[in-house]
Every structure is written in structure tokens, then in C-alpha cells.
Amino acid sequence: MWKQWNKRTIIKSFRKKYALFAACLIIAFALGVTAHASGWINVYRFFGDSSTVEIRTNADLSQREQDIIIEESITAYENGEVSNNIVSEVVYRNFNDVKEVESEYGIKIIIPSYLPNDLVMEKDITVSDSFDDNHNIYLNYKSETNDSKMMGITIITQNYDESSMVVRVTDTVFEGNYTSTNGEAFTIFNEDGATIVASELGTISYGLIFMGFDEDEMYKVVNSVQLDNYR
After folding, report:
1. What's this model's pTM, rounded to 2 decimal places?
2. Under CATH, domain 91-159+172-230 is a member of which superfamily?
């Protein structure tokens, strides 16, 4: 059973306003089941009424194993449980320039080709360095004319040890799927009044977070995104 699997001693909670998957519990486990060769990744997702669970592993999980993981992860998240096995702290760094971030991490930062004229990027680009040499990159934009209007871009790397399974529990609520005019596939979530438009491309999670946008303007931004650099 899943309870008997050996935890890989990493359980970490991340919280950052306007960041993709804000307030999420990330749990990495060592697998007690047969795994595939490196690079072969399964992603299982469960969309609940008030949360989303994502399981990333290179093992095949039965439906029963998925159900056990989902149930126990949601319970741990709702109860605020953090194991004594925490060994990794998140380190935040601030940058002033997109090119500087790209040079430091070797990750292309894709910005929509269309942005409303009233949006201005905030000075600091925040990068959180987390376990297994993964990074969360946050760019925030605010309107010069409307204090309640803002947009975020998040790029999250997910390069985990092939012997591990990572479970991500979030407060995001699934709303639907969307294919852009560029042919990009997105999943749409809602979290605390923000609309999150996210795409998963291999080891990269790319997200746009919108607050205070009307629907037409939001989709105009989404339709201008081209994610070929992540393929």
C-alpha cells in the first residue's frame, strides 16, 4: 500500500500570491513500485470541488493506488501537515532583467506577444530555487490605470529524481480546457478570483494568472503565446 512506501524525505509547502499553484503542498516519495526508464513520465490529475491533485511519476499506478495517494494528500494538505522529514528550503532571488534570468538558469522566458497597453512589468523578477534543483520564475504585471488589474507569468521546472513520485495539491479549481489560436493546449483554473491558464510541456509548467481582466482581453493575451521553445 502507499502508506508503506518509503517517503523520500521531502515535503514542502509553497505560498506566493499570484503565483501558479499558490498555496500548494509538494510531496516527493521514493517509489515502491516498478518504474520505467528515465524520461518516461506519467501525470495523473484529480479535479475536486475545491482543490486539484497532480501526481508525477515514472511508475504505472493502479486506480486504487491513485485513489489512496489522492485521499491522503488532500487530508495532509487540509490539515496543514508537514513531515519531520523536511530537508529542503526554498531560496528566493530577485532579478531586474529577463535576459539575466535566462542566462542564469538556461530557461527561456516566454512573454505573450500581446499585452494590454496599461500593463507594466514590476521591477523585480522573482525566482525560487527549490528541491532537486528546480526553479519557479515569477513575472508580475500591474495596470497603470486600474489597481485591481494585474497579470502574472509563471514558469516552473519539474526535473525530479526518476526514482521519485511528486504529488502536488493546490487550491486551484478546474474550470475547463482551451486550445489557443496558435494551437497551444491550456487548462483553466480559478483560485480566489484569479483565472489561471496553464500549460504542461514536459518538465515545464507555464502559467498565466489574470485578475481584473475582461474575458476578451484575457484570451487575446493567451492566444498570443507561442510555447515552441519548451518542446
Report:
1. 0.74
2. MucB/RseB, C-terminal domain (3.30.200.100)
